[in-house]
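Weekly structure sync, notes
Attendees: PL (lead), two postdocs, one rotation student
Agenda item 3: pending single-chain targets
PL asked that the sequence for the first pending target be pasted directly into the notes so everyone works from the same version. It is reproduced below exactly as submitted, 211 residues in total.
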Amino acid sequence: MTEQRHIGDQFNGRLPVDFEQRMRQIRFTHRPALAKRAESDSEWMVACVRSGREMDVEKALSDAGVEAIVPIRKGKERRRRNKVIPPQNEVLMSGYVLFRCCYSVEAMSGLLSFEHVVDVLGGWEKPFTVNHEKVRNIMQKAHDGRFDYERVSQVKVAAGDKVRIVEGLFAGLIAEVMTPNGKGKGDVVVEVDMFGQKTPTILPLAILEKL
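Predicted structure, written out during the meeting:
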């Protein structure tokens, strides 16, 4: 059942004249359902957000009482006028925010009321989930520098290569390389087959294993 169909059922199949405005109003009223805390060992879900807005969404969710986190890593070392600029903190998973709540259709609807949130990974009826231990492991490895941009890797990839993701949110999945990287460090754009469709994502070279 899609959100439109679910909402449509509330009106006996008849949609309001200003459907989008009504949808926004309904989603906003569902925010309290999203703020219902799950157990401390419950699985996490993944909000798909506009790239560059991950921290904004995390803050907005947290301010609304929703448990939300964004893994952070050290970015690229830069040089300016012969001076080395130390790597700055940056988002590890571009376009994604981890969140946790007591799952319900209303909670997923409430999530979509937040600015810059575009979807729930896997769909709002059967969202993709990540177990608590895996999330804790990701956060610890991010803190330890395992995902840092400058971390050296022996892997070199060309466009079209098949790789296995060995760490992180999508560990265990097979992906196809879209952008080559022979530098032994940095990031790679790959396409991951998830939920029957190809999804491009940016991953550290250091967490890929060439097949």
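Discussion points:
- The radius of gyration is 19 Å.
- The helical segments are 3-10, 19-29, 31-34, 54-63, 105-111, 132-144.
Action: rotation student to compare against the earlier draft before next sync.
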